[in-house]
Amino acid sequence: MIIKQVRLSQQAKDQLARLKGKTGIKNWNILCRWALIYSLAEKTVPTDIPIVNDSNLEMSWFTFGGDYYEIYEALIKSWCINMGLPTDDDTVSKYFRLNLERGISYLCGTGFIKSIEDLINLAVREQV
Question: At what angle do helices 89-109 and 28-40 cross, to 10 degrees?
Fold first, then answer.
């Protein structure tokens, strides 16, 4: 387990709240999974900025990943390897947080996510 608790910045929480309203997805962890995968697909390293975990939005790693938490950990480690980064727990945890925050920002900033269908179309379009 790379991290015990996932805690987001207030900005990320506010962005997720807007996404919840637009998509109808009620669970924070589901939107966070979408955001993480969207960011990992970028194939670039997020800017290494300090993340202030100043919101009250917190979930366990097991809540974040659900039945597939091990797959999310493997995806992050694989991403680190592909980016030429170490895979020690501190590095993997750091880039998990950076990718999560970046992904939330990207999904909220796209302007075209207005429904759950837009999320699905994003995933399908990226595969083509």
Answer: 100
